Amino acid sequence: ESGPLVLMEAMASGAAIISTDVGYVPTFVKDGISGFVVRNSLPETKIIDEMTQKVIQLNNDRNLLKKMGERNIEIAFENFDIKLFHKEYQQLFENLLNEAS
User: Fold this and answer.
1) Spatial distance between the Cα atoms of 4 and 67, rounded to a whole number of angstroms
2) Cα dihedral across residues 8, 15, 31, 51: positive or negative
3) Overall average pLDDT of the 61-82 stretch
């Protein structure tokens, strides 16, 4: 799996994302552009504080919230299309078969 399914679904629905930088999240969520990414290496209380501040920021700046949501729809349809996944998996399997022969 290339990333959390819930992240892809949220982006496709036009939600702004607030997440930590775990796994593939930073690949899709661009900090300050399509959401906010908080460092997972921070102490837990600091992560909670930063995420809370980002929620408040988006609540107070509806224009930014809307822009991030619109950008996420674009990102989702550019990156999470089923045809794209099919093509990438097909290429992966072909490469693996070629390596095995």
Assistant:
1) 22
2) negative
3) 93
